[in-house]
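ok so I'm stuck.
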Amino acid sequence: MSGDQYGTTHGFVVPPMPSAPPPAPADPLRAVAVALLNCSGLGLGYVLVRRRLLAAVCCAATGILLFVALPADPDGVSGTALTTYVVFLVLAAVHGGIVGLRTRLAWPPRAPLAIGLGLLLLAVPAGGVVLYDGARDEATEQMLLDRLERADRLVRAAEGKPFTGAESDFRDAWRVYSDLLDDHPGSRAADRVPDSMRTYYTTVGAAYEDKKYCDAIPSLTYLRTVSRSTDKEVLGSLATWPDDRLATSLYECGSDGLAEGDAAWPTRFGELFTAFPESEQAAKVEPAVGSAVDRAVKDVRGDEPCAAVERLKALSSQVAGLKGEEAGAGQALAEDVGRADRSADSGAYDCGVDQYKDGDFAEAVTTMNDFADENEGHKNRARARKIAIAAEIAQTIPAAGKRLPTTASGGSISVTLKNDSPDEITVLFTGPVTGSVTLKGCGSCTAYATSSTLARGFKPCSDSGKKYPQRTISLPVGTTYFLHKPKSGISGTTPASDTAKLSSGYVYTECAYTTKGFGLGS
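replied:
not stuck anymore, here's the structure
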């Protein structure tokens, strides 16, 4: 019998081969194993169930995450990217579990072993997280160290510059130091801040080390301000570093200004009294002021008495403004003020004498008259009046100022002073003796025409019918200079002068009269 006959006769047909292996029986452990292996982020669960394309997708997703995350920076991975990746892993694990439920594993053959491998491979993402956090922490440290270095560079670049020009850089650097200490106290950068601060202080306060005390005041004041705003435990000895230096700078700057006549010295001493009233430097202020007053008092007897008097007046005003009570110097400073005032008042006489000798007659008149008005009981008051008279005459007759007048009076020669003027006049005279006489106006007298005074035989004070106001004085032999001065307040008139050489055996008359257009004549 043939084969065909056999197949036909008996009715057997060979079934077609299946397109895929039949699904395996459901195995929850296998599903868990595939899900765990997919959680590694490498798609290993898909590899074990022969889903290579899906495994490649998992690897690609992990690669994208690594590309975004590396190199690590302080900000880390963005929340969106991280959330997206976690959702992807969850979906891959769920989908892998569904696939693995009825799909046999290519390897290993037993599900418990695959579960163990999955649990072991979970260390990959966990270790990656740990390593990434460490890398991010290191990136943060480097970032903070870079910030510290930039701040240090600002300080180094400002070295040697005036504080006013570098202040903004110093402030920027200080903000960095403070932020590192406050916001990142455990970082390596924060640990280095104290060293940077020490350099910072010495750089900002460099003017003090160079003995530029006035220049050091603003920078040390700034350091004292920022020291108060920072924790003293952090600053340590730097907390009080500026204090003694600032006190010394205030004293030295004020002392130099006091010696040089700089008007700013009271401000420096005032700041010293306010900030450091109990300091050694504050205790030295009053002795320095007292010495300055002593020098000015001594200078009154020197070559420039007027400058010394002005110095004393300035010292009196400046010292009076100092508030030294908290430093225990209030009473002593008040005594310095009183001494300066008394010496200035007394020294005005020496100033007037010096002005007179130098030919500054207008200044001498003012100085001596003020001195006489303000010092009624002074021993030189009478002579000051005499000098003022002689200086006033010397403004018109310079020869009258060649000799400093004395307080002598009287003489052997009679000189009658008459007023042939309707105006009250004062007759000033100087020579061997100096003085003044005031004569009332002549009620029946008038001003003379200028032409009449030029006529031959013109002789004022000769009308027997008039009663001329007059006064007789006694003067010594010698040259006497006269000045006829109209009453103060009469406008349009000028003084007239006369020089008389007085000799024994003669009687002299000085006549004052007024001319129209030319003022008083004698």
